[in-house]
Specification:
Blueprint lengths: L3 H17 L5 H22 L3 H36 L7 H21 L8 H36 L9 E5 L10 H19 L5 E5 L10 H11 L16 H14 L6 E6 L3 H10 L5 E5 L6 H15 L1 H23 L3
Parallel strand pairs: 1-2, 1-3, 3-4
Helix pairs in contact: 1-2, 2-5, 3-4, 4-5, 5-11
Length: 345
């Protein structure tokens, strides 16, 4: 049960780190590491308890493989749905590509590691194929582990309840359809309206800042269309201050803070987005020195897988240096193994 020690350590790190600031991606890493060590400790204990328990471990492993296959098929099906419902674009292809990758890449890794020994290949070719297989296997594991950390903590953070009465509610834009607010964006605005009305009922009137510039394919700025929607829902015009110059989530947050300060609302800020986008928005808020809390609104179920994958890729790109270090370290270890294998005995 030695694995319970790292599980306990990671659990403590998770609790401490989250209390200091819930808006840290490493919280998800600590949480997944703690759960992973706990699961592994349980499997090791079962495997050493007797034949019946060993059978349970084997059955569990087979079930995990089946579930991964089901996940891959579900992602492929979702990718087809996205293409039919949202049109052909790189973003809408993500779940389809992920599903195919989940099915194919592990098989490629296993084949590269095991098959060379079945053929009479030069030793150099044999070693290189195994090395490539190990790198592919590491890539699969690293992607699965980092996505688990991101996905699980996204779900945990999205349940986070804001604890401060906001003086400003920032609504992040997400694109217009023919100049009008689409359902995805309307969900954010309705969530912001619910918070606004709840705060107003307690005697305070926060300013609403719909944030979003004009895209190349949009006839007007997102902030203006969002402000129009809020006013149409009965919000006092004095409480709506649109931000119409931003082109990214980071700019949404930076420019909305300027609007907030210009309006004399330097108190607590609440950012509203969709639930799949909550964690990344919180990470960006922290990175610009904002103490804003972030809450999410519901998203259509078919849209969630691709949306989560886009957020995951965006976060991986934003942490590209750290990811590059991890990949290069793995590559260096494999290269060292290759050199060692080819040295004359």
């Amino acid at each position: 049960m030695i694995l319970l020690v790292p599980a306990f350590v990671f659990a403590v790190l998770y609790v401490v780190s989250r209390r200091r600031d819930a808006r840290r991606l490493r919280n998800g890493v600590f949480l997944v590491a703690a759960l992973g060590c706990l699961l592994l400790a349980g499997l090791v204990e079962l495997d050493g308890s007797g034949p019946a328990q060993q059978s349970l471990v084997t059955l569990g492993a087979l079930l995990a493989v089946v579930l991964v296959g089901v996940l891959a098929v579900a992602l492929i099906g979702n990718g087809v749905t996205m293409l039919r419902s949202e049109g052909r674009s790189l973003g809408n292809l993500l779940s389809l590509v992920a599903g195919v990758a989940i099915l194919v890449l592990p098989l490629v890794a296993v084949a590269l590691v095991t098959l060379p020994s079945q053929f009479d290949l030069p030793s150099v070719v044999d070693v290189l194929l195994v090395a490539i297989g190990l790198l592919v296997a590491f890539g699969c594991f690293y992607a699965a582990a980092t996505f688990a950390a991101f996905g699980l903590y996204s779900l945990v953070y999205s349940r986070y309840r804001h604890t401060k009465t906001p003086q400003a509610i920032v609504v992040l834009g997400s694109g217009l359809i023919r100049g009008e607010v689409p359902p995805l964006l309307r969900s954010r605005l309705d969530k912001a309206l619910a918070v606004y009305r709840g705060v107003a009922a307690d005697g305070s009137r926060p300013v609403l800042i719909p944030s979003g510039g004009q895209g190349a394919d949009e006839p007007r700025a997102e902030g203006d269309a969002m402000a129009e929607y809020l006013l149409g829902q009965g919000v006092d015009a004095a409480d709506v201050r649109p931000e119409t110059a931003s082109t990214s989530t980071r700019e949404n947050l930076l420019l909305s803070r300027e609007v907030q300060r210009a309006d004399g609302r330097d108190g607590a800020t609440l950012v509203v987005t969709n639930d799949y986008h909550v964690l990344r928005a919180a990470l960006l808020a922290r990175s610009i020195g904002s103490d804003a809390q972030v809450v999410g609104s519901p998203t259509a179920a078919y849209y969630v897988p691709s949306a989560f994958l886009r957020e995951y890729i965006a976060i991986m790109v934003e942490h590209r240096r750290l990811n590059a270090v991890a990949v290069l370290a793995a590559a260096a270890l494999v290269a060292l193994g290759v050199v060692w294998s080819l040295l004359p005995v």
